[in-house]
Write a structure and sequence with these properties.
By secondary structure, the chain is α+β, with helices and mostly antiparallel strands. The protein is built from 14 helices and 7 strands. Helix 3 packs antiparallel against helix 4 and helix 6 runs antiparallel to helix 11.
Length: 311
């Protein structure tokens, strides 16, 4: 046994260890890139098809193998189209590393604080006035195609601008506002609605739209209900409801903080269990609501999970 171990260790070189380590990091990075999006189900589907092909190869099922081989050529191009948001997101991440964007963390944080305060102030004002609102924060998944369904604004984020856009009677108040960094990219944008019947029964159109965009992207959405004035925050198809202005501002800062995002990727301070990004239910301690935020988020997470099973 000792001779066998020595023989194996003798064949392992530094380049082999480095090769395995880089490959493992790359695979982990790819999975973290698609986590929480619809691409996860697509990856599962592709994996099943690969397993079926291997089974056909082993059992000698020539017809099935030929069908899968012919379909693989078309599927290769289809995957490029289907995974377009994830590919853009991956290239964007590589570009940020290459541009040393981490040097500007202090300036980014000041921008995030100002934007979160302005949005929270606008949401609170709209809630008091009885107006509904749908505000989407773009993160790593580009929302250019969604923004193009509305009217391009390219204006500075301010509470006054947001309250004007969502005031009842304006031509843009029924759509969503898309925010990119510290700019209002577009207003009156149309978001995809959540497809599940559970979401349809439990929520109105704005909440369903917020769930729909966060199912397929990593965006976060602020929703102000026109019926009851309740302010909600949606991320990865999970909802924290009934937030006030300070709670909303703290939650937005926590989710947009670039330094916290890097710490989460490395499993450091600010990361959830196992180094994953924190769920909205874990933001209770950040927004100062204790376990109530967690309970609300867990209820909506359970609904989302049940919906995924139905699909």
């Amino acid at each position: 046994m000792q001779e066998l171990l020595q023989s194996i260790l003798g064949q392992v070189s530094l380049s082999t260890v480095l090769d395995i380590a880089i490959t493992a990091v790359l695979i982990y990075w790819l999975f973290s890139l698609i986590r929480g999006t619809q691409a996860v189900r697509l990856v599962v589907g592709v994996t099943i098809l690969v397993l079926v092909y291997v089974l056909a190869e082993v059992l000698g099922l020539r017809l099935l193998r030929q069908v899968l081989e012919q379909g693989a050529v078309v599927a290769l191009f289809a995957l490029v189209v289907v995974f377009q948001p994830e590919l853009r997101r991956a290239l964007d991440r590589i570009g940020r590393v290459g541009s040393f964007a981490w040097i500007h963390t202090g300036a980014e944080m000041r921008t995030i604080e100002r934007v979160s305060d302005e949005v929270a102030s606008a949401a609170a004002g709209l809630s008091r006035d009885g107006y509904g609102a749908l505000i989407v924060f773009e993160r790593e998944t580009g929302l250019e195609q969604v923004a193009e369904t509305g009217v391009m604004i390219h204006g500075d984020v301010s509470a006054d601008l947001l309250r004007t856009i969502f005031a009842r009677g304006t031509s843009l108040h029924d759509g969503a506002v898309i925010i990119r960094e510290d700019r209002v990219l577009a207003a009156g944008a149309l978001l995809p609605l959540a497809e599940t019947t559970i979401h349809t029964e439990r929520y109105g159109t704005r909440h369903r739209a917020a769930l729909g965009i966060t199912e397929s992207t990593d965006a976060i959405v602020v929703v102000v209900s026109e019926e009851n004035g309740q302010i909600s925050l949606v991320e990865r198809a999970r909802i924290v409801r009934n937030l006030n202005e300070p709670q909303l501002a703290r939650a937005i800062r926590a989710l947009l903080d670039p330094s916290a995002a890097r710490r989460r990727q490395l499993g450091g301070p600010g990361a959830g269990p196992g180094g994953r990004a924190p769920r909205l239910g874990e933001l209770g301690r950040l927004v100062g609501r204790g376990s109530s935020a967690g309970r609300a988020a867990e209820e909506d997470s359970a609904a989302a999970a049940a919906a995924q099973v139905q699909r």
